[in-house]
Amino acid sequence: MPTYNPPLRDMQFVLHELFNVVDELKMLPAHQDIDADTINAVLEEGGKFCSQVIAPLNLSGDSEGCQLNRDTHEVQTPKGFKEAYQQYVEGGWPALSCDPAYGGQGLPFTVNQFFYEMLNSANQAWTMYPGLSHGAYECLHAHGTDDQKKLYLPKLTTGEWTGTMCLTEPHCGTDLGMLRTKAEPQADGSYKITGQKIFISAGEHDFVENIVHLVLARLPDAPQGSKGISLFIVPKFKVNADGSIGERNAIFCSGLEHKMGIHGNSTCQMTLDGAVGTLVGQPHKGLQAMFVMMNAARLGVGNQSLGLTEVAYQNAVTYAKDRLQMRALSGPKAPDKPADPIIHHPDVRKMLLTARAFAEGARMLQAYTVLQLDKAFYSDDEDEKKDAEAELALLTPIIKAFITDNGWIATSHCLQVYGGHGYIHEWGMEQFVRDARINMIYEGTNTVQSLDLLGRKVLQNNGATLKKFGKKIAEFIEEEGTNEAMQEFVNPLADIGDKVTKLTQEIGMKAFANPDEVGAAAVDYLRVVGHLTFAYFFARAAKIALAQEASGDPFYRAKLATARFYFAKLLPETATLIRTARAGLKPLMEMDEALF
Amino acid sequence: MPTYNPPLRDMQFVLHELFNVVDELKMLPAHQDIDADTINAVLEEGGKFCSQVIAPLNLSGDSEGCQLNRDTHEVQTPKGFKEAYQQYVEGGWPALSCDPAYGGQGLPFTVNQFFYEMLNSANQAWTMYPGLSHGAYECLHAHGTDDQKKLYLPKLTTGEWTGTMCLTEPHCGTDLGMLRTKAEPQADGSYKITGQKIFISAGEHDFVENIVHLVLARLPDAPQGSKGISLFIVPKFKVNADGSIGERNAIFCSGLEHKMGIHGNSTCQMTLDGAVGTLVGQPHKGLQAMFVMMNAARLGVGNQSLGLTEVAYQNAVTYAKDRLQMRALSGPKAPDKPADPIIHHPDVRKMLLTARAFAEGARMLQAYTVLQLDKAFYSDDEDEKKDAEAELALLTPIIKAFITDNGWIATSHCLQVYGGHGYIHEWGMEQFVRDARINMIYEGTNTVQSLDLLGRKVLQNNGATLKKFGKKIAEFIEEEGTNEAMQEFVNPLADIGDKVTKLTQEIGMKAFANPDEVGAAAVDYLRVVGHLTFAYFFARAAKIALAQEASGDPFYRAKLATARFYFAKLLPETATLIRTARAGLKPLMEMDEALF
């Protein structure tokens, strides 16, 4: 069975040495009292919970899966899941970054994000229960009425209740404008909602006494398409005005999906049969309201694959040090043993270092981005807020798509390190691969993310936000331009920066002639920009590591070696991506539909 | 549930138009009577069997898996598997390419390979039962004594018995030199064999009355390492001299592996407790004998991923034409429908065309290579035989690694086309991905294949075989050099050819200084050479398609479009691979083992 050690040292490096988050957070009125010790202590305690309570349930949760009782419509989660959730609630973990006005601890999102990385490493399927709940909390916090907030937020904050997001229907996922679930206004101001939802994560389970569903549906007078969708709160049990639980509402789990992975999470078909709900936000503006939740969820999905990459890496390293097989081509490395540990074989190292670099790169990108989320949410400076919002919007699709694609590659490499044993369930590696696969799909497929990045976030404002981010990179390059030791990092960084500028302009020009050129280039483009961000952060990390080299602390030697590996072996992927992006639309459209 | 349509038209193109196999095969004495009609009729009938009998059992076989009765040590296969095998035997399919001297039909390996592509598309897990059996047949045919052949080959030919290969042990797979299973000589010339084997595909099942295990074990006087391994026949039931079944032998299935995929195949732990066996070939030369089987198996594994790529592609196309979601960025393509079929979205096409090009490229490479197998086996011209053997040896690791890595990419893309539905078992796509994953591991991991290619097949003879293959490419380029319409194919082909030459020389030089440089570059190198072969075959296919363009047959338009897609969007992967291969060993070795 896999094990998990929270990577606290690297987290501290990213938080305190690379991004100096305490100083940044202290500028925000809500966080003026934050300090490094608090952050470190929370992560250390959180790490214990993840490695000791949640991680041991991952493999068994995958084997057991969830069971639906078709008579009661209740779902039984795998053994130990419910008890672990009780510990989670008792530990106050759901409240970590919630609003103190509703009982939260008010810690920065940055801290919560790092805690979630560990939860995801330990058990992605389990973590989706509180994870979805947190998304529902954020959506209601942003768009609910005072009454709705008072009724629901305290229970979501303590974790006594959990939440879901009910979007997808059998005929529409990406294209929510086509959804058919109906909401009929009632005399008392409530709505009766009827329809069929699928793929509802944590839609029904046995953790809590009530589940707060956020449901997208269409009012009778709704315009067609995505501008006619409204958002409703539909609790499993109706909630009385005093907050007590009322009668069962007509929203039921009517089936569980049989999935490739995340078996421990209940992915539900939900049937609404005149279920009573209340409107959240304005009529027909439900999709915008839901996007608060979706954007947070997209960061969360990237974080899931970061977690999986880290835990897969850790276990593959252990195996590679332990497993004896063949001699190194350059001669025995462990002459006292019948064969060399496979970590001495160059390609095994390449697979391990790929996973390591993807994890460390993702951790830096996540931290940088979620710090913008803290600024966007908490800053009292309008300019800073706007800048942070724009950068957050730019980086969110990159986090979702780049990190999850990398996670798929990395977990598969880590499986491969195990040889045939990697294919066997008991070793746990194949589960990481299966779990990682969903992250490329849900909360907007990675193709949708790439269209969001290139079409909306870059081309729609003539690349202004990207240029702003690029300016930070240019300043760093300028600063380090005379530092000889940094040339190996700064030169390729400058090169990829120039190439991104040129590629962006080229696609922008082509898109004038045919907007489908955006669709043809977007996926490659997103990965190129993803590499630009990784190259930037690895160069910054290398600068610190070089400065600390004399300390003799092996952490910095490892950081330098990982950065060098990244520049030598991973960044060159951009050579292909730029070529295929430039090859454009024609090779994709030449074949008639009928000839496929 | 997925469906499968045998791609007979493309098979005929590859066989008859591209490689003109009938003329080639007619030169071989054993096949002088072969004709296209026979080949086409066999494939058409075989295709029906695959799509109508085997394919419908794929999804259910995955759900049910195999069950071991721990008291009887018998394994129950999924519902319908056994009956399908009976039909397979009744149809005479096991005998297709077997030696007429033992009851076989004596058809070329080329025909059998195409038939197996269809079996693999239909149901990889089921196909492994007869597939392993065929490997055992070939090994015994090459290395068995006359008595052994008479006793076993007729039953393996009819399919009344099946075979296995028992190599792996818990502590060794790649490094078989470490294996511990012991064989003790008995007074009657037989051996008593004791040990523990794992990962034995089709090791125990309910299809047949007897299973012929080929077991690697160590004699008492065996030298250490891989030069002390001998090969034995160990039947499940002892076989009397007259061919009748005797008493149960002491080889038992002691456990079934829980795997990521190929659930319908029984992957067994086998315990030998003084099981009686007879020696095959010379003492201590078992590994060489087994390599006959392994090389055939490696072609077979490439063929498995070709089959999966084809069937995943077919189903993803159907879904992409049917599923309505969003409008094309360039405006509605199906204005009468609520949204456009997703096949109009450029990135969906890119995913589909990637799978299509990988399937068509693999089919060409497989056909070309297995034709060399026919020549190597059947030619009466010693020079032709040697050339064919060398080319077969060169291309086998490319087929194994390149096609299976591509199959992983392609099946994952096809899953992605389905969005969230791709993650759901009932659609069948996630099974293709899970099944495809093992192909990168078994019969020698893809890293082992790349070391075999670069270290043994290329550098050990100073690239002589590769140069010979390169000469064919150069001749084709020369021929087409003045054909303007072919420039778009021939120029990039010439370019990648030059780059392979240069890269091979560079790595060869570096390997003098440090043999580990081979291990650092091998995986990237294999993919570059794989692309060289695909580029060559797609260019040749394009030449034919261009010549036939005037015919108006849409098949040739599609072939041209696929070739163009390949050159524009897939071949550029070499830009990255060459860079990372050249980056060499240093970035992999900089980190101390302890720092991982």
From TrEMBL, chains A, B:
Protein's recorded name: 3-methylmercaptopropionyl-CoA dehydrogenase
Source taxonomy: Bacteria, Pseudomonadati, Pseudomonadota, Betaproteobacteria, Burkholderiales
Functional summary from the UniProt entry: Involved in the assimilation of dimethylsulphoniopropionate (DMSP), an important compound in the fixation of carbon in marine phytoplankton, by mediating the conversion of 3-(methylthio)propanoyl-CoA (MMPA-CoA) to 3-(methylthio)acryloyl-CoA (MTA-CoA).
Required cofactor names: FAD
Root EC class: oxidoreductase
Annotated source species: Inhella crocodyli
Keywords of this entry: FAD, Flavoprotein, Oxidoreductase
Domain named Acyl-CoA dehydrogenase/oxidase N-terminal: residues: 78-160
MF terms in GO: flavin adenine dinucleotide binding; oxidoreductase activity, acting on the CH-CH group of donors
Catalytic activity: 3-(methylsulfanyl)propanoyl-CoA + oxidized [electron-transfer flavoprotein] + H(+) = 3-(methylsulfanyl)acryloyl-CoA + reduced [electron-transfer flavoprotein]
Chain ranges of the Acyl-CoA dehydrogenase/oxidase C-terminal domain: 285-451
Acetyl-CoA dehydrogenase-like C-terminal domain sequence ranges: 471-592
Residue ranges of every copy of the Acyl-CoA oxidase/dehydrogenase middle domain listed in the record: 165-273
UniProt-listed PANTHER family: ACYL-COA DEHYDROGENASE, BROAD-SPECIFICITY LINEAR ACYL-COA DEHYDROGENASE FADE5
Keyword Oxidoreductase in annotation: yes
Protein family (similarity comment): Belongs to the acyl-CoA dehydrogenase family.
EC numbers: 1.3.99.41
